[in-house]
Specification:
There is one protein chain. The strands form two sheets. Strands 4-5-6-7-8-9-10-11 form an eight-stranded parallel beta barrel, surrounded by six helices. A three-stranded antiparallel sheet has the order 1-3-2. The radius of gyration is 23 Å and the shape is globular. It folds into two domains: 79 residues, Ribosomal Protein S8, Chain: A, domain 1 (2-Layer Sandwich), CATH 3.30.1370; 261 residues, Alpha-Beta Barrel (TIM Barrel). It is 45% helix and 16% strand. The longest helix is centred in the C-terminal third of the chain and has 19 residues. Strand 9, helix 11 and strand 10 form a beta-alpha-beta unit. The two termini are 15 Å apart. GO terms for molecular function: dihydropteroate synthase activity; metal ion binding.
């Protein structure tokens, strides 16, 4: 007799199929193998006691501090532990309970939904002379050549911007931004490059976004996260996808002592607010992409916490974008000049994909294409 370990629930599902289990059995047993942990903040003592008993009745568990049973405080933090099957059943039970447990049930169901997205590579083109990575700066002719190379190397999306958002950068006028962008956008249209890739405009200027959308761009990448609702209304009028990014402060101020009460919950609340705003404008969930904004008003600790918890943000039902290409967080871990940060970039991005990201924004398309293909081959490989 021999034994070996199966690493992930998805592998377990594959193993069950190869074993010869019927379709219904695969669905049931794989859920028993998929264990989840949720931190619940500020749950009332009454709700905690009810939830604890309901968990125990189905084989799940709620870890709580000493004093919950006697209600020595009004509210507590707790950790919910259970398989997917147990938590789905628990969510149904809690819909009939008081003390805010109905709302908790809805959140649990959102977290447990499975949504799969194809991994896509977004290549970066900066039409300016002050982006933090010199290798991403292009003028008109070199920009179009770089775009064509990125498409050939495997880019699904090309993201073009003309204003640097590096820490400490200063804004430029809309007129200057459009002056930088216009010749590139015009050439893309003239060369019919829209037939070969999807194009995204990295801007929060109404004039620049309008020109790009009118010319055939189909994604708006807004680092301000739809702070200006008019940007959303404009994008919606063209049927564009909207990338909502989180940034604390502005590029000039964002790295001056960034602070969060809880970086995961604070950014979650931000996305909840902006998604609600987008839905009111008329967007559908599938039209929205979320970007936690690595390096935009975050310390290294904040960035690492966000990367470890990217899957959390999938509960909204949107795709998640990761953009850590050659960023300074790599230098803070291993002191390295920007030109030598490709290995660190690949490590971050592959781990981000494993943890829920489906769009990777990067400078080095060819290298990412190879790394992602190898990663996917490992993930899809047989477990028996």
């Amino acid at each position: 007799m021999k034994i070996y370990r199966i690493d992930k629930p998805n592998d377990a599902k594959t193993a069950l199929k190869l074993l010869g289990s019927d379709k219904g059995g695969v669905a049931i047993m794989s859920k028993k193998m998929d264990t989840h942990l949720f931190v619940i903040k500020d749950i009332s003592a009454g709700a905690a006691n009810i939830l604890k008993q309901d968990c125990l009745s189905i084989g799940a568990e709620l870890a709580v501090p000493t004093g919950v049973v006697t209600c020595s405080k009004s509210h507590y933090d707790a950790i919910l532990i259970g398989t997917k099957r147990q938590l789905e059943f628990l969510a149904r039970k809690e819909k009939a309970q008081p003390f805010g447990l109905k709302k908790l049930a809805k959140k649990l169901e959102d977290f447990l939904k499975e949504s799969k997205f194809k991994t896509k590579i977004m290549g970066i083109i900066n039409a300016n002379d002050d982006s933090f990575y010199p290798g991403s700066r292009y003028l008109e002719k070199s920009a179009v050549e770089a775009i064509e190379n990125m498409i050939e190397d495997g880019a699904d999306i090309i993201d073009i911007g003309a204003v640097s958002s590096r820490p400490g950068s200063e804004p430029v006028t809309s007129q200057e931004e459009l002056r930088r962008l216009k010749p590139i956008i015009d050439t893309i249209k003239q060369e019919k490059l829209y037939d070969k890739a999807i194009f995204s405009i990295d801007s929060y200027s109404l004039e620049a976004i309008a020109y790009a959308l009118e010319s055939g761009f189909s994604i708006v990448n807004d680092i301000t996260g739809m702070q200006n609702s008019k940007l959303g209304e404009l994008a919606k009028s063209y049927g564009a996808t909207y990338i909502i990014m989180h940034m604390q402060g502005t590029p000039e101020t964002m790295q001056k002592n960034p602070h969060y009460d809880n970086v995961i919950l604070d950014i979650d609340a931000f996305f909840e607010d902006r998604i609600e705003r987008a839905l009111e404008i008329g967007f559908k969930i599938e039209d929205l992409v979320l970007d936690v904004g690595i390096g935009f008003g975050k310390t290294l600790e904040h960035n690492l916490m966000l990367l470890k918890n990217l899957k959390h943000f999938r509960h909204f039902g949107c795709e998640v974008l990761i953009g850590a290409s050659r960023k300074s967080m790599i230098h803070k871990i291993v002191p390295t000049p920007v030109e030598e940060r490709l290995p660190g970039t690949l490590a971050i991005h592959l781990e981000a994909i494993r943890r829920g990201a489906s769009i990777v924004r990067c400078h080095d398309v060819k290298e990412h294409k190879q790394a992602i293909k190898v990663y996917e081959a490992i993930e899809e490989g047989s477990v028996l």
